[in-house]
Records
---
Amino acid sequence: MSTAIREGALLYPIIGGIHLLAIALFGGMVLASDVRMLGWGLRNESVTDLIEQFRGWKWFGGLVVAITGLLLAWCEPIKLYHSPSFWVKMILFALVGVHAVFFRRSVYRNTEAIDRAPGMPPVAKLAAALSLLLWVGIVLSGRLIAFDS
Amino acid sequence: MTIQRFLEWLAASPVANAMNGPEWAFPVVESLHFIGFAFLIGTIAIVDLRLLGLTLRRQPSRQLQADLAPWTLAGVAIMLTTGPMMFSADAVRYYVNPSFRIKMMCLATALVYNFTLHRMAARSEKPGVAGIIAACVSLLLWTSVLGAGRMIAFV
């Protein structure tokens, strides 16, 4: 399959394209919920709505990103193994998972309390800020993979 | 000034030299371009999904469009900065690249469409079927922009 993707001239850019399309289509949702929790905008929409309504879509987008990412990695495993940026990206991606678990009780499953609170709780702002930093880091390190070789 | 002379000037401009100077310059600007996808296309996609009745049904599409608009505009600013910066790095070659040309045509269409018909549909009281069509066209146009952009390096 690795050879099939590498040598099928169109398949590699298509898989890469879908990988980027997922950022485009679902990245806005990450942006929207993080912006809301930082208190930077979208105040007409509740934190609950922006977290709950996007959860399924974000999971789906994440799945698309992961699967296309795996297929891309399958093509060039040796190049990726030797790429520092790839490992940074994988660590950041793992941290996204840690982030979700870490802030689950205080933020992501606690949105109703956050909406009731007089001001945005600092823990929500922290979760949102870290989320943005992690994803920016993932995009940047992802792009730098090609640069490493 | 002819187009060719303009492109040659651009390719030798300070911006172009900065883009072609340090090795990390182009990849970093391109990463910002990718992050811009989320600002520009991502916010529009939320409105489109709303028009399709697939998310945030408690808010009218009108409100979502208005609330997201500043972020969409920020996206336009990011893309129209990072894009030309990357273009300048190899202006003469990009200009004749068929994928680049298709992308520009799709982009112009998508932008005009977004700020006219799409906006009208999203801001109407009852978008209905027109809203569904508007959303599908929007998603199709932006996917084409991204697809054509992806193929620039491959043609």
---
Amino acid sequence: MKHLLSVDDLSATQIHELLELTDHMVEVSSRPIPKVPALRGKNVVSLFFEDSTRTRTSFDTAAKRLSADTMNFAVASSSVNKGESLRDTIETISAMGVDAFVVRHKSSGAPQMITRWTNASIVNAGDGWHQHPTQALLDCYTIRTGLNRRDSFDGLRIAIVGDIKHSRVARSDVQAFTMLGAHVTLVGPPTLLPPSLDGWPVEVSHDLDALLPHLDVLYLLRVQRERMDDALLPSMHEYSSMYGLDQRRAAMLAPHALVMHPGPMNRGVEMVIDPADLPGSQILHQVANGVAVRMAVLFTLLGSGSDLKGDAS
Amino acid sequence: MGHTAEGRIVLSADDVRRALTRIAHEIVERNHGLDGVVLVGLQRGGVWIAHALADILAGIDAATPVPVGAIDVSFHRDDVGLRPIVPGSVTDIPDTLDGRTVVLTDDVLFTGRTVRAALEALNDYGRPRAVQLAVIVDRGHRELPIRPDFVGKNLPTSRDETVTATADGVTLR
């Protein structure tokens, strides 16, 4: 595997292999000294054209735990502000010797485009409304460990609630969850669902309460406040009363059900209850698993030698 | 010793069992007992050896239980990126290794590179008082200054031969 651009690029087998490798990375992270020399001498550059704290920090931590060198390209203080094109930026940094770029960009397809301008591996850390493959992998890993479903998600019922239309997380998660065998229902106001669900292997519902008792996983998306300005939502209060997770709805969940959220969370909107009061909350596990999954991705791209022949002895 | 389709049988299952029994006694002798001893098997071939030795040691000195762990050294190898690396089972070290005597176990000692990786990996779990190495077969061709402390059998080989060592015996082909 040279790049990770989209969940589309992965087979169910490859997802399972990455999740198994993640088990090793969780163990590495739990050592008294959580650092291994596997990617010594490799240079990983984060190139974030959009704001992010957790994803950037997570990749940075992952690369450091594997002993890679890391460089943060801060767009705000870069020549991008002098009008440098994306291509020139990539070619310039590549010339310094880069093994992988971790890219976040507001335009869908930007990471794919970048693969043409450099020999480095590209990891998509979120592009527009399109894809966020490492989020999907860390969510799969969280469900796999949280519900002890190592082999498949066959028969699991997962609801993804909120702004599906503008969410790369929803798009990536739907693909990954269904590829592993889960049954996915999308829940949200009609204005926040994609105009066409042709080809999405999902069901759609507007009635969250009816679903809650049957769910194995309740996945809440962040309500993006800027959508209010686009008049897609009447008010935060109305959204919250229809789709927010409050005390009453939390009590309707099955005891084993997991509650997940990709962060950052809007308390009082989609998350009304304090997640600390939710026994099934996986939100902090998702963050910790994110580091381990990204270690597995970086190791697979840069260190596994998966494109080489021969056995280790 | 006979031949099978898999090659020349160097040690039978009984021979392997006797060699492990002797190694277990040597471990007790060398360490003046079992206080502080931890067995750590190298993934994948050395893990069953650590468990087999622990069983035998329990028969020798039942009063001092010996913890058993397993270590995967994939991320410490010196050939990362040079050939495919597929980790075995997840590393499981039972406790801190500070001040303990670690007996690393492996099936076949060859170039010594896996053992070097293991020595480095062990550092992540603490600072052992000593590390000793037990192997079923030492087949020579070392590429690093590493030697075993406990050996089932010294077996002269050529580089392109393959040695397999399991509880069922040792074969060379």
